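Many introductory courses stop at the sequence. We go one step further.
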Amino acid sequence: MDRITLKEQLEKYRTPYEEESAFIQDFIQLTEDPLAFNRERLAGHFTASSWIVNPDRTHTLLTLHKKLGRWLQLGGHADGNENLMEVALKEAEEESGLKNLRLVENSIFDLDKHIIPERPHVPEHFHYDVRFMIEADLTDKLVISNESVSLAWFTFDSVVDMIGYNPSILRMLEKTSKSEILL
């Protein structure tokens, strides 16, 4: 997947979720910016994430993010790499230590545009996060990266109780449950 393929997938991407469909056009427009895949674009830039689930679709792997202090899916900055699927897989491996990650589909699973708070030397900005569903085994050894405080598998039933209200996580959880019904 490169910039052109990403734009094509975004143009075809459909979602029943209003909050997600509201910013699809923003993602499409961002693909035209030469700096879109670089964190130096201070107005906002692409990031890529992995919604990691076990093959039975009963658990998801989340990380307690060190800088943000919240449980989130694994992911990170593109740092110039226009292949966001590759970025998502690389970040997932780096942040979890998992080696046997499997891409569920060769397409976008979810999109989220969210604000990142100001930090020293980094102004407040948007992340245009492109997410992919990845499978991993619950029994594989996890290794916590220096970007995380913790890393844990959560049952789908316990996600809300453990992480609180996070609309984008809840949306991915709901999408996963719906995709299982369709299988």
